[in-house]
Amino acid sequence: MTRIGMNLTTLAYWFPDHPYIDRAYLTPPWQAKIGYLQCSIPIPAGRTEIVVEWGGADSMTPQVPVAGKIDKPPVEVIDARTFRFTAPEGPENRAAMFVARGSGLSVSNPPSLSVVEAEHYAAWKAGAKFDPRLIADLTGIPTFRLKDWLNTDGNTGWQRMPLVDAIGFAEECGARVWGNIRPELTDTQIRAELGIYEALCSQTPIIEYGNELWNTSYPATNAIATRAAAAGVSLFRQGGREAARLGRFARGRRVALAAGSQPVSPSRGLEFLGGLSDAGSGPADFTYWTTSIYPYGTLVNANGPLLALARANDIPGAIANIMGQTGATSEGLSLAALAKTNAQQAQIAADNGLTMAVYEMNAHLHLSAHPAAVQAELLDFITRLQRDPRAAVIAQGIHAQARAIGAEEACWFAWSAPPTKAGYFSVKGTAAEPVVRAEQAGAG
Question: Where in the chain is the domain with CATH 3.20.20?
Answer without folding.
Answer: 3-13+133-440
